[in-house]
Design a protein that fits this description.
two-stranded antiparallel sheet; 41% strand; 1 helix; mainly beta; Trefoil (Acidic Fibroblast Growth Factor, subunit A)
């Protein structure tokens, strides 16, 4: 083969690999899916913030704005998980372990640390997916989970409403994944 043919093959393969690849953004999404079948993207529900409260079913995808904060976008910062919105806020739990509820707070108390394990990039899908656990206190090792909120009558609303909790045996599969920009 001539040098021109070899050069053309190298050039085309280099351009093709760049075109297929994506650019990681600083944002992550947190999604939950029913336990039992593993994690199913078709059944996944994104977790975000609306009116200063944790909300379910928001979309982490914002057309033409992948680098912008959004209602279902988070920053995973070592041992903290911070909402990317203008008002900020951190996912937090009771560091004493007396309550397993996960809430959104402006300032973290000492002793509230998260561990996101397995946040490694999948080369086939370009998604970095991880599992969320408490990394400190009596609930250390408990995983992020959700439970249906019951009314005063003990019944679940229709459609069901959820709240985030920590659980040693979660009923939901939660995943944290990096949002990528593709051009």
């Amino acid at each position: 083969m001539g040098y021109r043919v070899v050069g053309a093959i190298i050039l085309v393969s280099g351009v093709a690999s760049i075109a297929v690849g994506g650019i990681p953004t600083p944002h992550h999404a947190i999604s939950m899916s029913p336990q039992g079948k593993g994690f199913a993207w078709d059944d996944a529900v994104a977790i975000g913030v609306t009116d200063g409260r944790i909300a379910f079913g928001l979309s982490p995808h914002l057309p033409n704005a992948v680098h912008q904060p959004g209602p279902a976008r988070w920053h995973v910062l070592a041992t903290q998980i911070r909402w990317s919105g203008r008002d900020g806020g951190y996912l937090a739990f009771d560091p004493t372990g007396e309550d397993n509820t996960v809430i959104l707070v402006r300032e973290l108390e000492k002793g509230v640390e998260w561990e996101v394990t397995g946040l490694k990039q999948d080369r086939a899908t370009e998604e970095a997916v991880g599992v969320v656990r408490a990394a400190s206190g009596p609930l250390k090792g408990w995983r992020l989970d959700a439970e249906e909120v019951r009314g005063r009558d003990g019944k679940v609303a229709s459609p069901p409403e959820y709240r985030l909790i920590l659980s040693p045996k979660p009923k939901w599969v939660f995943r944290v994944w990096r949002i990528w920009e593709h051009k």
